[in-house]
Amino acid sequence: MRKTVFLLASLFVMMLATQRVNAEGPASASATANATATIITPISITNVADLNFGNIVAGTGAGTVTVATTGTRTSTGDVILPSATLGTVNAAEFTVTGLADATYAITLPTSIDISETGGTTMTVDNFTSNPSGTGTLAGGTQTLSVGARLNVGAGQVAGDYTGEFSVTVAYN
Questions:
Q1: Ramachandran assignment for 38, one of left (phi > 0), alpha (psi -120 to 50 degrees), beta (any other)
Q2: What digits encode the pLDDT tens for the residues 117-145?
Q3: CA 1, CA 8: separation in Å to the nearest integer?
Q4: DSSP states along 83-99
Q5: DSSP 138
Q6: What structural domains and CATH numbers belong to the chain?
Q7: What pTM, to 2 d.p., does this model score?
Q8: Are the C-beta atoms of residues 151 and 104 closer than 8 Å to each other?
Q9: CB of 147 within 8 A of CB of 51?
Q10: Ramachandran category for residue 126: left, alpha or beta (phi over 0 → left; psi -120 to 50 → alpha)
Q11: Distance separating alpha carbons of residues 119 and 16, to the nearest angstrom
């Protein structure tokens, strides 16, 4: 009888231990997650109009001609801007396209040289843009205007001066 009581008591203790282990749950668990990515429209910039300072008369002293982002021009120093034969005057214009409502950074050159066929040069500097520094692609597009200052030397050689500059845009 003692053996039976001892056996029953042992079975009872083992049953309680098994219940306790089952109540604590498994020793590990797992869950799943999704991995996602979105490829967006690349940003691009297209030239629509070139920067034109128009016709300029160089004096015996140096001066500057500035074309604002609005396309208006002003001068300083010994430079004459003829009103009757002003030539083509306008700011450079670009179209920036990309992801709708994204913002982007604008990088302008510090300065460039433009030259005529004989090799004489003038420096273009003080580049400005509208928008300035950053832009927003409302609806996926924005017009970017660029103006600058032309440094005209004393007695600058007459001729058609040309040169290139780059405007860089990048998503923020």
A1: beta
A2: 999 999 999 999 999 999 999 999 999 99
A3: 10
A4: STT---EE-EEEEEE-S
A5: G
A6: 44-171 (2.60.40)
A7: 0.81
A8: no
A9: yes
A10: left
A11: 101
